[in-house]
Amino acid sequence: MSRARKTYALRRTALSRELEARGFTAHGVSGMNVWVPVRDESAVVNGLRSYGWWVAAGARFRLASEPGVRISVAELEPADAARLASDFAVVLGESEATYGG
Fold first, then answer.
1. Which residues pair with 25 in a beta bridge?
2. How far apart are CA 3 and CA 93, in angstroms?
3. pLDDT at position 94
4. What DSSP line would sit under 35-80, residue for residue?
5. Which residue, 22, 57, 76, 78, could crosslink 14 as a Cys pair with Cβ 3.0–4.6 Å?
6. Are 28 and 37 in contact (CB under 8 A)?
7. CA neighbours within 13 Å on the CB side: how many for 43?
């Protein structure tokens, strides 16, 4: 396995575990992105931006799947995954935490 592949896998796993610990479903088994289903892509993108995180609305990346956001882990240090997941939970609020998609 290449160094980049190992690094992305470590980062994806760290973020996915932190999100799932807070009740969110995260998808991503390869590459440098994690997909998280949400009801309102724009609200999540804008909310996370206010915390200093840049994520992408999923509309331009999906054909038939439900709304979601795409989170790149390319530069996300595993130690920062918990903070991102916590900020994500705050942005969505408790009512979204059970959405899972």
1. none
2. 36
3. 46
4. EEE-S-HHHHHHHHHTTT---EEGGGG-SSSPPEEEEE-TT--GGG
5. 78
6. no
7. 11
> Tokens 């997909």 appear where?
35
Across residues 70-90, what is the average pLDDT? 96
Prediction pTM value: 0.86
Cα(24)–Cα(10) distance, integer angstroms: 19
Q: Are 55 and 44 in contact (CB under 8 A)?
A: yes
Task: Please name every residue paired with 57 in a beta bridge, in sequence order, or none if there are none.
Answer: 69
Other C-beta atoms closer than 10 Å to the C-beta of 34 total 26
Query: pLDDT (tens digit, 9 = 90+) per residue, 23-47?
Result: 999 999 899 999 999 999 999 999 9
What b/e string do you get for 58-88 counting C-beta neighbours within 10 Å, with b at 16 or more?
Answer: beeeeeeeebbbbbbbeebebebbbebbebb
Average pLDDT in the 42-57 region?
A: 95
Angle, alpha carbons 8-12-16 (nearest 5°): 175
